[in-house]
Amino acid sequence: MVTKHEKKHTCPTDFKTVRRRQATSWVVGECVKRRLINLGRVYRPRDVMDDMKRKFGVELIYSVAWRGRECAYENLWLGTPEQSYKLLPGYLHMLMEINPGPIVNLEVTDGNKFQYLFIVFAASIQGFSYCQPIISIDATHLKSKYIGVLFTAVCHDANQQIFPLAFGVGDSENDASWTWFLMRVKHVFGVNPALVIVSDRHRRINSAVKEVFPQAFHGICMYHLLNNLKTKFKSKTKELEQHYIQTAKSYNIQDFHMLVYTLCSTVPGVKEYLKSVGLDRWTRSHAPSRWYNIMTTNISESLNAALVKVRELPITAFVNEIRLLCQKWFHERHTKAGCCSSKMSKDVETKLAQRRDHAQSMDVICADQYMFNVLDGDRNYCVDMALWTCTCRKFQLDQLPCDHVLAIIRKTPYEAYDLCSLYYTREFWHETYSGVIQPVPHISSWSVPPHISSFDL
After folding, report:
1. What is the helix (H) or strand (E) element at residue 371, kind and residue range?
2. CA distance 383 to 186
3. Coil, strand or helix: which one is 356?
4. What are the φ/ψ torsions at residue 379 (nearest 5 degrees)?
5. pLDDT at site 17
6. Of 103, 271, 398, 444, which residue has the fewest beta carbons closer than 10 angstroms?
């Protein structure tokens, strides 16, 4: 029987150093923090373990690797999550000092606890005037210690890339937070009579849009609706997806009726479900507003993907990474647009070239200087060049010459560029990014008034 334990190690001193060399989490953090500077990649604890073994011959257990990564984050990105919240008011003050004109709202509870944050850069306010009035909204969960939700509002630029409008942070995705976010978007950007808002079918988004933007057309992302259909009608998902996408993307009513008949015949019960959603909210053929061929929230999803890693950071570091991303996009795209020699953006020039190729095989019959028949295979389309309409409806919905209009242009003095919306032009593309987002200096260079620096958040 053991009655006494002498706490004395008898193993040789080289046992741990050779067979299982150790490192504290602080040391691990110092060794790997350079790998965290590029937040475009996901750096997992397993990656920490692999790097430490390859570079230093140290085998780590998972918990030490995880703590080491967190130590590196704290050293690189302004301390612990608690410290980061205390630094936030000072950071926002410096952001507004260096970048005149941004809209920043920080709201706290009666006990000075963080509640909401809303940020719009002045460059985004200036650039939105040159973008199509179609706003995609979405929310995604943050992954730092205190979690929360990121709200985003984005649109397309002339080159069909993401243009960031507004960012918000709240406690959760509920009625109050969505209403709060959209009210501030409305206050900053106003209400365009032609405004279209695109989102998923989240019921809290629906109620907030109805309350804040009652006059705007609210479209549903067709891919989110497709996922809902797949969940509800599981037996024929392959046929459902094929027929649904064709139906949603059809431009004219005649094609829609033919395609929706096939869809409903293939998947019984889907007709009533889609009618309950509202045909005008997910189909091109019934939409009362110009969608400019934007029927999804893909740009919102792409922005979320660009921020996937930084969502793990403490709040102040997270906001700084948003600013860095926007700063980078504005500079790179302004430079790219300035180097563009064509009249339209590069994406639109490519699209027009593809349509011109298809138009080569079409026959054109003239009625007068404005009215034309265009024979496209076994189909006959009527084009009114005075009203900018074609019976295919691409011309008027996309505000871009369709194949049939380009077939007419081959035989008439009309100019294709004169029939494109200004939102597609190189000038609008360049002006969209004419604003500049300036960098915020290191905390050691901040000059913050005492009433802000002493604010205990």
Report:
1. strand 371-376
2. 38
3. helix
4. -115, 145
5. 47
6. 444
Which secondary-structure segment (H or E) carries 21? none
Q: Please report which helix (H) or strand (E) contains residue 16, including its range.
A: none
Tell me the three state secondary structure of residue 277.
helix
For residue 254, which phi and psi values (nearest 5 degrees)?
A: -60, -45
Strands (E), 144-187: 149-156, 162-170
What's the rounded Cα separation, in Å, for the pair 339 and 426?
10
DSSP annotation of 15 reads: I
Q: Which of 433, 374, 368 is nearest to 127 (CA)?
A: 433
| SS3 state at 390 | strand
In Å, the largest CA–CA distance within the chain is 112
Picking from 280, 298, 300, the residue whose alpha carbon sits closest to that of residue 290 is 280
Strands (E), 186-279: 196-199, 217-220
Q: What is the rounded CA–CA span in Å between residue 373 and residue 411?
A: 13
One-letter amino acid of 402: C
Which tens digit of pLDDT belongs to each residue from 410-424? Answer: 999 999 999 999 999
- Residue pair 283/243 in contact (Cβ under 8 Å)? The answer is no
- In this structure, of 36-50, 137-151, 161-175, 185-199, the range with the lowest mean pLDDT score is 36-50
315-331 as b/e, with b when 16 or more CB fall inside 10 Å? bbbbbbbbbebbbebbe
**Alpha helices, DSSP H, located in 284-391:** 298-306, 315-339, 346-359
Structure tokens at 399: 């505000």
How far apart are the two ends of the chain, measured CA to CA in Å?
A: 58
